[in-house]
Amino acid sequence: MKSFLIPGLLVLSGLSLSTHVAANNVPQSAQEARVEHAQEWINFLASDELKGRKTGTPEMKKVHAWLEQRFTAIGLKTLPDTDSYRQEFSFEVKGESIDGVNYIGYLDCQCDNDKYIMIGAHYDHVGQNPALEGDITFNGADDDASGVVASLVIAELLSQKESLPFHIIIAAWDAEEMGLLGSKHFAENPMVPLDQIETGIMFELVGTPVEEHPKSAWMTGNQYSNLLELLQDEFAKAGWSLDADPFAQMGLFMRSDNAPFALMDMTREKAEQVFKHGQQADITGIPMHAISVWRGQDHYHQVHDEAEIIDVPNLVALSEVIAKAIANLPSDTKVVWKENPHFKFSRP
């Protein structure tokens, strides 16, 4: 998670999530296979070999090849009028030009709807710190390899449906840790008309639940749109809860990859107008939110954010709940901004 207001190869073979026979000849359920493959994906993304997945480093080429393979294996299409999953961009940090790459694919709903729901997470992290003793790698297993894996599991599940209520965009963002730059680039250089994106869910730290909140996730900015209410029934049917943001005072709605879409014309002046002076600001945006299970654990941006701390079965179960919730939405679903004391929203 980063502030929206900040200026500024190990290649795995194609894996199907269908039922198969494990090495010990015991047939696996589809859910068990999903857990096994999700664990392999977490292990890859959080491996020391990738040196913390810092944007622009040579190791990111291995991640790009892996994402290309995953998108292809799932059967994601390139967006209409494009011939690649890659959306390339560049930016400068301290006079150095850095190249970033978003990976964007989609599932055609095989329906009459021309609207999209966007699902995504950032695949970059903060790299290494050679000044440390011992472990110098910030592996970013929860932040945000867990979110990337959740997005891929959801994509795999939805790809098996004959039809869907909306087209589904699957996004893997780069350079989130440098100021939400990948998602910001897409929002400013959209590959589909922004008025066709009905809503979206970004994932942040969805791999480490706490015992006090089993089968529970929460949504940033829940007070701003009706998306929370639209998903809660499906969560409840599965024995899960989708809760309001327990850290509203931290402003997390503005600190993940939903923000460049939800707060398109946000400025520092508007933020001060709202949060310093208590005045409502006019904002253009698409109702888009982040979902998390993090409850304040200390691994955020620490070297011990490694694959071992991820509860993969829980991560897969959450992905299954969200995939079902999306698949069961009526095709005429409207995600609308609510009246609230902070922002007067309008859609692009």
Automatic annotation (TrEMBL):
<dbReference type="InterPro" id="IPR007484">
    <property type="entry name" value="Peptidase_M28"/>
</dbReference>
<protein>
    <submittedName>
        <fullName>M20/M25/M40 family metallo-hydrolase</fullName>
    </submittedName>
</protein>
<keyword id="KW-0732">Signal</keyword>
<feature type="domain" description="Peptidase M28">
    <location>
        <begin position="112"/>
        <end position="325"/>
    </location>
</feature>
<dbReference type="Pfam" id="PF04389">
    <property type="entry name" value="Peptidase_M28"/>
</dbReference>
<dbReference type="InterPro" id="IPR045175">
    <property type="entry name" value="M28_fam"/>
</dbReference>
<feature type="signal peptide">
    <location>
        <begin position="1"/>
        <end position="23"/>
    </location>
</feature>
